[in-house]
Amino acid sequence: MEPIDLSTPVDIRVPFTSLQTVKAFLETEDIPYSVMIMDLQVMLDEEQDQMLSARAPAPRTTNDYDYSNYHDIADFSTGGINRPGIWLDTGIHSREWITQASGTWFAKKIVTDYGRDAALTAILDKMDIFLEIVTNPDGYYYTHNSNRMWRKTRKPNPGSSCVGTDPNRN
């Protein structure tokens, strides 16, 4: 890919052991730079401390969930280890909009009805459910903006004039 504009600023993360070498190179090439974050690890440690101090029992309703903090995998599970899982991917074929809508509906059902719906609660107490709501985002976008009946992804195929790949067949 060719650069769009040579004057566009970029952010890079440089390991501390390479910092002086990179600075020297930029100065030699007359490339202006500024250091935005001197020590990223300090910021990551502060973030981790904040997460640990805000830790509360795993929420069981959407009203209990703290959206202002990051959560680990335990906060998204009803507990247990080495449990069987159910994988649901929706939106594989971009024109099949009902699958994305069904996946979104199911996600809401899981979080609102756990503890209220006996059958769902029994499943979640024994299994983990993994949801992938939009498996083919570029194709899905394309069906909303260009070609409603498009099925595949939108990535060009090298050596071919055909665009896209059927994500569950190729």
UniProtKB/TrEMBL annotation:
Keywords: Carboxypeptidase, Disulfide bond, Hydrolase, Metal-binding, Metalloprotease, Protease, Signal, Zinc
Domain Peptidase M14: 29-170
Cofactor(s) this protein cannot do without: Zn(2+)
Enzyme class: hydrolase
Alphabetized InterPro entries for the sequence: CARBOXYPEPT_ZN_1 (IPR057246), M14A-like_propep (IPR036990), M14A_act_pep (IPR003146), Peptidase_M14 (IPR000834)
Top-rank lineage group of the source organism: Eukaryota
Reactions the enzyme catalyzes: Release of a C-terminal amino acid, but little or no action with -Asp, -Glu, -Arg, -Lys or -Pro
EC code: 3.4.17.1
Pfam families in alphabetical order: Peptidase_M14, Propep_M14
Family (UniProt): Belongs to the peptidase M14 family.
Name this protein carries in UniProt: Carboxypeptidase A1
Organism: Salmo salar
Taxonomic classification: Eukaryota, Metazoa, Chordata, Craniata, Vertebrata
Gene name as annotated: LOC106561560
